[in-house]
Automatic annotation (TrEMBL), chain A:
This is Xanthine dehydrogenase YagT iron-sulfur-binding subunit. Residues 1-73 form the 2Fe-2S ferredoxin-type domain. It comes from the Bacteria. GO terms for molecular function: 2 iron, 2 sulfur cluster binding; metal ion binding; oxidoreductase activity, acting on the aldehyde or oxo group of donors. It holds the Pfam family Fer2.
UniProtKB/TrEMBL annotation, chain B:
This is Xanthine dehydrogenase YagR molybdenum-binding subunit. It comes from the Bacteria. InterPro entries: Ald_Oxase/Xan_DH_a/b, Ald_Oxase/Xan_DH_a/b_sf, Ald_Oxase/xanthine_DH-like, AldOxase/xan_DH_MoCoBD1, AldOxase/xan_DH_MoCoBD2, AldOxase/xan_DH_Mopterin-bd_sf. SUPFAM superfamilies: CO dehydrogenase molybdoprotein N-domain-like (SSF54665), Molybdenum cofactor-binding domain (SSF56003). One of its GO terms (molecular function) is iron ion binding. Residues 30-146 form the Aldehyde oxidase/xanthine dehydrogenase a/b hammerhead domain. Keywords: Molybdenum, Oxidoreductase.
Length: 149, 731
């Protein structure tokens, strides 16, 4: 498995989730766990560029894949935009929101859809798998809009 | 004092009031911020809880053999083998730290089960997977006991709720019931609100490390100092040897204010196995071990004359606590302050159930109480055929309605005027169900937000280095409010130095003690300490300089000093007496007004909130960016409370049936429109720097504003939260 650009040779039990592997064994604690059942999006990482809930993924399924966590995206304009637009409060959902937004923008671009179609309503719909209990949604949407301009 | 106040009045604020980026933003967007479950120690072991599956029982046997046989399991702690903890201290007003005992249960020191979900064993293992798996194999045998679990059934047995020094439980002025009988126009409504849970996105987690009698705990807590003292008491060790670290807290909202089972059991397990232990609760375990907001039933009856002037206000409530503890929720508290009336009757009742203790959740009392009073005011406006904004203006009090105390400041009239204008309130068609946009029925609603203002004293030290760098030290808690950011702004202005030169150290119990983050007290409380410490520092520097002019750096250099440090310490007894005396004559609060637009699908009943505007009278704003975020956050949580959130408790077993983010529906991106936030920015003359706490006020009134908009859109008055589509569909 390649993680944030580095080759990792790992020996893991078949029941270990990708989220636990990244957090507990590789120390990539930017991957957060909010529910451990795919309901909150805090553990979102990119697998070969596609956003996934790493808590719902078994690590062994991602043998040979390229995994990118928040630690591997920097520096990304979204990170600065999140700070500028205050798209965060406690910060716990933030890495997942940013990884998800990166994946979402790539999905939208790959679909060949008109970039102008990515308006606020569309961003909200596409980001609805990432919960923020502090309610920083306005700032998150503004940050994403900002980097797409 | 006069000199410094003059200086402050003449020196323009450079940073206070500015939308400064939060100082911890970078750590949070890069993943560098480490939360309680993210600290690594060599030899770290992992714990998982076993929860009781019955509501009330004695454990007659507990079979741990299968759990112990799981490879990697280090130990299984039960009431049969766990080391003893001291019992939780009872609340004493002489030691406010005793307030953090969340329940009266001494975990693993008793064979008694007091609620369905109570931890009855802890498994410690080499990996989290082994601990979680082994926990499922522990088999307690119960002798079940009768349990009282059904809130609705027990409501008639409710007893009067006790008040306290800071919160009266009831009020009587005139004869409200008699006035209701003779009022030309009345409404008399019964409301219900369900239990809610905080659902901070970071599940509660503790990493506990013992070194002899010394203990280090990484914990997402809203109250570092009180947690330290509580742990020292429970584990019988000196307080100075206990260190609590909480530089990042992944949301709290009241759920991390008290000390719950997981924290204690992680520390206990670490002591038992002689290794560092991490206990990261699953989402379900948070529901089973951390209390939520009480359900309520409320009656609001209003009487008015034909002009809409209130003649009677009746607001009564029933809420619940656990038999093992909990916070009686001041449900009718806001009604003490909102509207003028010659006759007012307020009562709060409570029932005790065999459920986990309830606890404070963002604006306890006001959040659910304003749903009832503000919905009833709206319904009265319908009865009178009067604009609901106008009805509120006609009843806006000059003095506190129940007792005639003065308001320290109150700008609700201005808030209504500004909000109505910005929202386009006057342009609406006031008739119910008259505004349509395709399949959508469109409605607008308005409601008032109210939350009392309190502060506590804080210990703060400020160090000025010869290099011009300033370090503010204070054990405050940061869980997303922007606490460190605003205190850095304040210190920079007080000392007249660039913001970049100020660093705030926080989130560590070895720093000077600060009050907990709760009751919207933190920002103003610590600002008071920071201002006092900066004043003291300036005096010290002036003395060093002996009146000669010069910059701080020059004065320190001339005096041969590397740094100057000023400390201020709180005098709690004096402060409490002063506070109580002030409360005899003054009422202070944060308040505001919500305007919203909803769209209700005429066929399916689906409700979408399409526009929101809030105007807040919340004293001076320190940071327009983080303040807006916090006010929006309260509104978003209020939207969940209004439309989708509800903790379902099985009334037969006491088990929470939806302990997950898949089954308990918090608002998502698609549920939240742009929220337009305005401030009146009028300093409160009685508070440090004119600041008023803003953490809770904005959730108050949200559910009523939504309900009132739904009433306007559809003609249906929904009295029971949450407002789900089945409640607005005809027939």
């Amino acid at each position: 498995m390649r993680v944030n650009g580095a080759e990792e040779k790992l020996d893991v039990e078949p029941w270990v989730s990708l989220a636990d592997l990244l957090r507990d064994r590789l120390g990539l604690t930017g991957v957060k766990k909010g529910c451990d059942q795919g309901a909150c999006g805090a553990c979102t990482v990119l697998a070969d560029g596609t956003r996934i809930n790493s808590c719902l993924a078994l690590a062994v399924q991602y043998d040979g894949k390229e995994i990118t966590t928040i630690e591997g995206v920097a520096p990304h304009p979204l990170q600065e935009a999140f700070v500028r637009h205050d798209g965060l409060q406690c910060g716990y959902c933030t890495p997942g929101q940013i990884c998800s937004a990166i994946g979402m923008l790539a999905e939208h671009a790959a679909s060949g859809a008109d970039p102008a179609a990515l308006d606020e309503a569309e961003i909200r719909e596409r980001m609805s798998g990432n919960l923020c209990r502090c309610g920083a949604y306005n700032g998150i949407v503004d940050a994403i809009k900002d980097v797409t301009r | 004092m006069t000199t410094t106040e003059t200086e402050r009045a003449t020196a323009p604020a450079t940073y206070v009031g500015k939308p400064v980026d939060r100082v911890d933003g970078r750590a949070k967007v890069t993943g560098e911020a480490r939360f309680a479950a993210e600290h690594h120690y060599p030899d770290l072991a992992h714990a998982a809880l076993v929860h009781a599956a019955v509501a009330r029982a004695r454990i007659t046997a507990i079979d741990t053999a299968a759990a112990r046989a799981v490879p990697g399991v280090i130990d299984v702690l039960t009431h049969e083998n766990a080391p003893a903890m001291k019992p939780p201290p009872k609340f004493s007003p002489l030691d406010l730290s005793t307030f953090v005992s969340a329940t009266s249960v001494n975990y693993l020191a008793t064979d008694e089960v007091h609620w369905n979900g109570q931890p009855v064993a802890v498994v410690v293992a080499e990996t989290p997977e082994a601990a979680r798996h082994a926990a499922t194999l522990v088999r307690p045998v119960y002798q079940e006991l009768p349990a009282v679990l059904d809130f609705a059934a027990e409501e008639p047995n409710a007893v009067p709720q006790k008040g306290n020094l800071l919160q009266e439980s009831e009020a009587d002025k005139g004869d409200a019931e008699a006035a209701l009988k003779t009022a030309p126009v009345t409404v008399d409504l019964r409301f219900t609100t369900p239990p809610y849970h905080h659902n901070a996105l970071e599940p509660h987690a503790t990493t506990a490390v013992w070194d002899g009698d010394r203990l280090t705990v990484h914990e997402g807590t809203q109250n570092i100092a009180w947690l330290r003292k509580h742990l020292a008491t429970r584990f019988g060790v000196p307080e100075r040897g206990v260190r609590v670290l909480a530089p990042y807290v992944g949301g709290g909202f009241g759920g991390k204010a008290m000390v719950w089972a997981g924290t204690l059991l992680a520390v206990l397990a670490a002591r038992a196995v002689g290794r560092p232990v991490r206990l990261a609760l699953s989402r379900a375990a948070v529901y089973h071990t951390v209390g939520g907001r009480t359900p309520s039933t409320q009656r609001v009856a209003l009487g008015a004359d034909a002009d809409g002037r209130l003649t009677a206000i009746v607001h009564t409530s029933v809420s619940r606590t656990g038999r093992i503890g909990g916070m009686p929720e001041p449900v009718t508290a806001a009604t003490r302050h909102l509207y003028a009336a010659p006759n007012i009757h307020l009562r709060q009742h409570v029932v005790e159930l065999d459920l986990l203790a309830n606890t404070a959740m963002r604006a306890p009392g006001e959040a659910i109480g304003t749903f009832a009073i503000e919905s009833a005011m709206d319904e009265l406006a319908w009865e009178l055929g009067l604009d609901p904004v106008e009805l509120r203006l006609r009843n806006e009090p000059e003095r506190n309605p129940v007792d005639g105390k003065r308001f320290s400041r109150r700008l609700l009239r201005e808030a209504y005027a500004l909000g109505a204008e910005r929202f386009g309130w006057r342009d609406r068609d006031p008739r119910a169900g008259a505004t349509r946009d395709g399949r959508w029925l469109v409605g607008m609603g308005v409601a008032t937000a109210y939350h009392p203002t309190l502060m506590l004293p804080a210990n703060v030290s400020v160090r000025l280095g010869a290099d011009g760098r300033v370090v503010v030290r204070c054990g405050l808690q940061e869980m997303g409010m922007g606490a460190a950011t605003v205190q850095a702004q304040i210190a920079a202005d007080e000392l007249g130095v660039p913001l970049e030169s100020v660093r705030v150290e926080y989130g560590d119990s070895s720093l000077p003690d600060a009050p907990g983050a709760g009751g919207s007290v933190q920002t103003a409380s610590i600002a008071g300490g920071v201002v006092a410490a900066c004043d003291k520092l300036k005096r010290m520097v002036r003395r060093l300089g002996r009146g000669a002019p010069g910059t701080y750096a020059e004065i320190l250099a001339r005096a041969g000093r590397d740094h100057v440090t000023a400390e201020v310490k709180a005098n709690m007894p004096v402060f409490m007496i002063r506070t109580l005396l002030e409360r005899r004559r003054l009422v202070k609060a944060a308040c505001g007004v919500h305007f919203c637009e909803v769209r209700v699908d005429r066929d399916t009943g689906e409700i979408r909130v399409s526009r929101w505007l809030g105007v807040f009278d919340v004293g001076r704003i320190v940071n327009a960016k983080t303040a807006a975020s916090q006010l929006r956050g309260g509104i978003v949580m209020g939207l969940g409370m209004a439309l989708s959130e509800e903790t379902l408790v099985d009334p037969r077993t006491g088990r929470i049936m939806n302990p997950s983010l898949a089954d308990y529906h918090v608002p998502v991106h698609a549920d939240v429109p742009h929220i337009d936030v305005h401030y009146l920015d009028e300093p409160d003359p009685t508070m440090p720097l004119g600041l008023v706490g803003i953490g809770e006020v904005s959730i108050a009134g949200v559910a009523a504003a939504v309900a009132n908009a739904v009433r306007h859109a559809t003609g249906v008055r929904v009295l029971d939260l949450p407002i789900t589509l089945d409640k607005v569909l005809p027939g």
